[in-house]
Write a structure and sequence with these properties.
Layout (H helix, E strand, L loop, with lengths): L13 H8 L4 H9 L3 E14 L14 E12 L5 E9 L6 H9 L4 H7 L5 E11 L4 H4 L6 E11 L2 E11 L6
Antiparallel strand pairs: 1-2, 2-3, 3-6, 4-5, 5-6
Amino acid sequence: MNKFPLANLTHLSRFQKILLITDGTVTKLLEHYLDESIIVQKLNEEIQQGISTFPYNDELDIETPTDVLQREIFLQGELTGKNWIYADSTIFIHHLSADFRKDLLESNQPIGKLWIKYRLETYKSILSIQEEKAQSLAPYFGINEQDRIISRTYSVYSNQKIIMLITEKFPLLFFQD
């Protein structure tokens, strides 16, 4: 059953819809759409230990308490320096290889590129799609606080274990057909 029928997204452009429902890497889609390489601009990255509560706890099979990497980034145009997408990720680091964890912490590569680099087979499940005011994200996108942003939250699994919860947000003004 499709929790988020496209009929509810009729006011969005085709590319915005693709960004919201894709189960591929957003980074590659952005690079092709924008004709620009995408890099990560890290805002915050912190390992938290013994976490027991997560969004969507009831819908996910998460062994708690557990250690996570909490990460906030922007996917940014390499040439333009423009922030295109904000992402807040909860990464269940004990379900990833040591090399993958090291690259996450030490490099500025987008997660999607690391999935490809490490040939990580993933399954993604969309948990929510929302529209809200930009508020505190507005200055990062060069928009007003009252402008609307679109977001999606999804879970990522590999080897039948949850490895990430990711929320991605972008302005409604971006990616118009």
